[in-house]
Design a protein that fits this description.
- There is one protein chain.
- Strands 1, 2, 3, 4, 5 and 6 form a 6-stranded mixed sheet that branches.
- The radius of gyration is 15 Å and the shape is globular.
- Helix 1 crosses helix 6.
- It has a domain of 120 residues: Maf protein.
- It is built from 6 helices and 6 strands; from the N terminus they run E-H-E-H-E-E-E-E-H-H-H-H.
- It has 172 residues and is an alpha/beta fold.
- The longest helix has 18 residues.
Length: 172
């Protein structure tokens, strides 16, 4: 399986490799723009970023599949808690399918700073006294005390997005 990932972030590349490990993937990373804000808000904007990354990665390579991954934040549930969300998109040039990873509620101090216009990675680094959390365990790792990390969370989204391409259950 030959895939192009629309990001050079090592966590995103590793997420594709880990999520599709049983297919022995060949994964190429390519730097593409997401077309959305650095900190996407809401499922729609986060999905749009993943779709754009997948399409651009596919168009700029000879890969069988283009993969886009996008992390964002979204408000849902009762009483509308802000959550970390993550989405993946996969395209073969004809079809474009999406899948999500887990979502995690964000602590109030993080929420306040995000709503003031900040970006999750730097906010988490500042709040936790870490450096480059986005290329390591991610907010998912910190907020679950290592039960999952960002790579695992994104790998789940990739597995969900590629399902229609690797099973017969979706038809064409």
């Amino acid at each position: 399986m030959n895939l192009a990932v629309g990001s050079t972030n090592p966590v995103k590349v590793q997420a594709v490799t880990r999520g599709l490990e049983r297919f022995s993937p060949t994964v190429t990373s390519i730097d593409v723009e997401s077309g959305v804000a650095e900190q996407p808000f809401g499922h729609d904007e986060t999905i749009a970023g993943a779709k754009t990354r997948a399409k651009r990665a596919f168009e700029q390579t000879d890969a069988t599949y283009g993969v886009g991954l996008e992390g964002g934040v979204g408000r849902f549930g009762d009483p509308g808690q802000l959550h970390l969300i993550m989405w993946a998109a996969v395209t073969d040039g004809d079809r474009l399918c999406c899948g999500s990873g887990p979502s995690l509620p964000l602590p109030e101090p993080i929420t306040v700073r995000l709503e003031a216009g900040g970006e999750l990675g730097p906010i988490m680094d500042d709040h936790l006294g870490t450096t480059n959390i986005a290329t390591n365990e991610g907010a998912a790792g910190a907020l679950t005390d290592g039960l999952i990390d960002r790579t695992d969370a994104l790998a789940t989204a990739v597995a969900c997005a590629i399902g229609p391409f690797v099973t017969p259950y979706y038809g064409e």
